Amino acid sequence: MEKLETLLAQIGNRSETVTGTVNPPVYFSTAYRHAGIGESTGFDYIRTGNPTRKIVEEAIARLEGGDQGYAFSSGMAAIQTVLALFESGDEFLVSADLYGGTYRLFERGWRKYGLGFHYVDFADLDAVEETITEKTKAIFLETPTNPLMQETDIAAVSALAKRHGLLLIVDNTFYTPVLQRPIEQGADIVIHSATKYLGGHNDVLAGLVVAKGEDLCQRLAEYQNAIGAVLSPFDSWLLIRGMKTLALRMRQHEENAKRISAFLREHEDVTDVLYPGRGGMLSFRIADEKWVNGFLKSLRLITFAESLGGVESFITYPATQTHADIPEEIRIQNGVCNRLLRFSVGIEHADDLIADLAQAFKHMKEV
User: What is the DSSP string of 228-244?
Assistant: First the structure.
């Protein structure tokens, strides 16, 4: 198989033979002509399948080492569809440090339909194993977690899941297949908010799922079609364009993040830097909560915004943005305190980013 960089750059090339186009066309048609009863081109209706979306789905399946890929209108739509696999009474073990939007969907959405969620620390697998009951059906991991950047040993959790007959679902948004391929480590399902690094340009809302195993893939395909939260043709094309440069971007994100984490660790107004040593995401805590707003207001280059993974650097305040729907006592207990900032390090020159941080630290106490 070609190297990952080659697979990414070649997404969509040779996808049709009539014109020889290198850049794949966007197929906007919602319906497809049938020559007769039982005669189909493989496409019938846009919700079930679309040629442009198919390119994305086949690409992510190959990149992640899965059997089938599925493209959705958002990362949350992807998670919603995966949860449709389960029945009332089923329970999940979930990363205690979790994106607030996922927590909201679990607690305000699926819990009222009878699903149960138990939030655990996967650093202690013996303790995790003790929480498993006959109702436990799946494990849902973020690794690294959002926003505390805690990594989990996927292979070890996979071994645990297989001993108990559980599905292992991994959110791979932060690392992408460039840095981590969970299916190769035993995961059954991989989820991406493709809005983030895969799209990479803050211009497309998308979610992806990859699964391994014929029966599981068939069930996911049925729910994708039935629920219908699929990715549009044009957004599929935007995602294809973004994914082509993913490997290049991830290298620059990581190079910058390493330099910035080193700078932050030496700064007197920073008490903690949470960076696992790879990727472009990090978090840090400012020494005093009252300086947070002044720091954000003082930024001139880095953008205070609620997203991540784009070429532009973003800083997010989880307490009022991404994790605002988690009850404050739970949020703070988990470590997402009111001094914590999450930094999606972009691909600008690291010197310029560090200079912006330095001047923001200097002026934050004056605001």
Answer: --BPPHHHHHHHHHHHT
Task: List, in order, residues 6 or more apart from 367 with CB less than 8 Å away.
Answer: 293, 294, 297, 298
0.90 cut: is pTM over it?
Answer: yes
* Sign (positive or negative) of CA dihedral 221, 217, 208, 190: positive
DSSP H or E segment with residue 77? helix 75-83
At 159, which helix (H) or strand (E)?
helix 154-163
Q: Ramachandran region of residue 213, left (φ > 0), alpha (ψ -120 to 50) or beta? A: left
Domains of the chain: 4-243 (3.40.640.10), 246-366 (3.90.1150.10)
> Of all residues in the chain, what percent carry a pLDDT higher than 90?
94
- Which positions are catalytic? 47, 99, 171, 196
Residue 325 has pLDDT above 90, yes or no: no
pLDDT of 148 reads 97
H or E element, residue 304: strand 303-304
Q: Is the pLDDT of residue 219 over 80?
A: yes
Q: Alpha-carbon dihedral of residues 181, 184, 190, 195, nearest 10 degrees?
A: 20
Separation of alpha carbons 178 and 246, rounded Å: 8
In angstroms, rounded to a whole number, what is the distance separating the alpha carbons of residues 359 and 367? 13
- Residue 347 confidence (pLDDT) above 90: yes
The answer to whether residues 294 and 364 touch, using CB atoms and an 8 Å cutoff, is yes
Give, in degrees to the nearest 5, the angle at Cα 366 between 365 and 367: 95
d(CA 64, CA 361): 40
Determine the straight-line distance between the first and last CA of the chain, rounded to whole angstroms. Answer: 55
Maximum pairwise Cα distance, the chain? 74
